[in-house]
Amino acid sequence: MNFGTSRASAIEKLNKFVEQNLFEYSRLRNFDYGPSNRSNISCLSPYITHGVISELEVIKKSLSKFSFSKNEKFIQEILWRTYWKGWLELRPNVWTDYLIELNKIREEFKDNQNYKNAIDGKTNIECFNQWVNELKENNYLHNHTRMWFASIWIFTLELPWQLGAEFFMQHLFDGDAASNTLGWRWVAGVQTQGKHYLASEWNIKKFTNNRFNNIKLKENAPPKFSEKTYSIVKQDFSNKNIDDRNLLVFENNLSFETTDFQNNKFKKIYIISNKNENRTIKLSEKVIQFKSLLIDDQMQRLKGNSIDCEIVDITEVKNISDSIIALYPTVGENLDYLNLNGLKLDFLYRKLDQFSWQYCNKGFFNFKNYIPKIIANFD
């Protein structure tokens, strides 16, 4: 698999998928044919996660090819990430509590051989071992495979979901706090209490075209249980005064020239780099490099448009003396750093988030009823 590190490569991947493979997406999307054949899925998530291309760009491109009714499943999958982000924004303590739990569990499992075998791909489950290696090598897994992987990790290998979520974050190019954490919670049965996802031998064989043998799983395990419940925290997602300020851009908004704020005048744009020193979850070198190259590409495009810009480490934000405002980094490591260091900034929120997050107060099946309304709002 190849993930280019530029907006141009993201646009090329989008155009190719829409023109050649979108028509069959709904029928073939659940099949994992292996990393050498990903034509049945878009593989755009690493770029959407980093804001190199936006959900609306992808949706509008797909609708230029096919009607909403023929595109509905693809559009729903694109907006899952928008939904997860909104759900977590309304309940940010889920992320905070996850990191607290993770820190404790890390210590408990640091010498656990079952855990070491899992992350080294040395279990007695062939498909799981191959997926571990595929994740480390390609920094990507098919969405269906992520569900199987998490289910095996939690219910067959009997490892804490928190460690599995960390393992994914360390290696996925498209890892983000919302989709990753909440996805693992959902498989475990603590996102929707009592409803978990159990991988099964027949399902794995069917949707991998019988590529694997020796799939012995615990297919009747009960869901995990959590006593914690989370109420919605009232948030203000309105934008503040923009005029004549420096702008901070984090790793989730790396296409400033296509944002809602492209026509506003800023003194200077600072693109923020956050290396492992200031992360709770230490990312693999390949993921850090991927982010760094995408940041470099954003800077070059800004300079090509004669926009004054500079890449700075997140630790240098406190030294930017003039008035600053930031494109909202969303709940996760970057926002954590700002909060932990007392850096209270004004934020700018995407119009898509402002409009769609109001529908993230319940489950996705409720959210998807509003998808036509969301799309119509941005026609």
Structure commentary:
This protein has 379 residues and is mainly α. The chain has 3 domains: 7-89 and 356-377, Alpha Horseshoe (Serine Threonine Protein Phosphatase 5, Tetratricopeptide repeat); 96-207, Orthogonal Bundle (DNA Cyclobutane Dipyrimidine Photolyase, subunit A, domain 3); 246-348, HUPs (Rossmann fold), CATH 3.40.50.620. It contains 17 helices and 5 strands. The protein has a 5-stranded parallel β-sheet, covered by helices on one side. Helix 5 (68-89) packs across helix 11 (177-188), helix 9 packs across helix 11 (177-188) and helix 10 (161-171) packs antiparallel against helix 11 (177-188). The longest helix has 22 residues, at 68-89.
SSE layout and pairing:
Layout: H1 7-20, H2 25-28, H3 45-49, H4 55-63, H5 68-89, H6 93-109, H7 113-119, H8 126-138, H9 143-156, H10 161-171, H11 177-188, H12 201-207, E1 246-249, E2 269-273, H13 285-304, E3 309-313, E4 324-327, H14 333-340, E5 346-348, H15 351-356, H16 364-367, H17 371-377
Parallel strand pairs: 1-2, 1-4, 2-3, 4-5
Helix pairs in contact: 4-5, 5-11, 9-11, 10-11
